[in-house]
Automatic annotation (TrEMBL):
Keywords: Hydrolase. InterPro entries: Restrct_endonuc-II-like, Restrct_endonuc_II_AvaI/BsoBI. GO terms for molecular function: DNA binding; type II site-specific deoxyribonuclease activity. This is Type-2 restriction enzyme AvaI. GO terms for biological process: DNA restriction-modification system. The keyword Hydrolase applies.
Amino acid sequence: MTTQKTYLQHLTRSEDLITEYQATRSGFVALALEKNRRATPFIEQARTLKLFASQATIPTDLLAIIDIQPALLTAAGLSDKSIKYLEIQDKIDAIQGLIKNFLEPAGANFIEELVFRFLLTRGDTLGGAMRNAGGILAQRKLIRTLISILRISGKSYRWLHSATNQWIQMLEDDSDIELYLKGLSWKHELE
């Protein structure tokens, strides 16, 4: 008995696996827009940091501004994750190193230097989040495509809700389902 390889219905040559320019372009534009959307809170934080830090006349004055201590740690190059593992003295050392090695040499531009360093670390955070976002956006697109194929083919499906962990029968209105779908199930024609 010969088993037909169903993928051959769609893939007949290696070029069939190459993403078309428009799809690639569309993906990059979508990621750029998402990156800008997610960057907005960091930009606002940087503006607020600049406002608070402008109370200081010299870099060491920043130590007395209690409300910006977490931002000073960020400007020192520490990620939110790394801060959780540090002792108080480690944090003090990081801030003092920032002041001595970068802010004091910047002279009168120390606030600008502080904000740039803050944004540099936040940008790194955003980069990590965007690597995950690219995968999430691709996953949502795949889910939406699978559901469309099932609907067009007249096949019913069930989906696993990520928050409730419950299987739900196909809904008439499936808008935004890809935001909550954790699993997808349907019956094969031979079942």
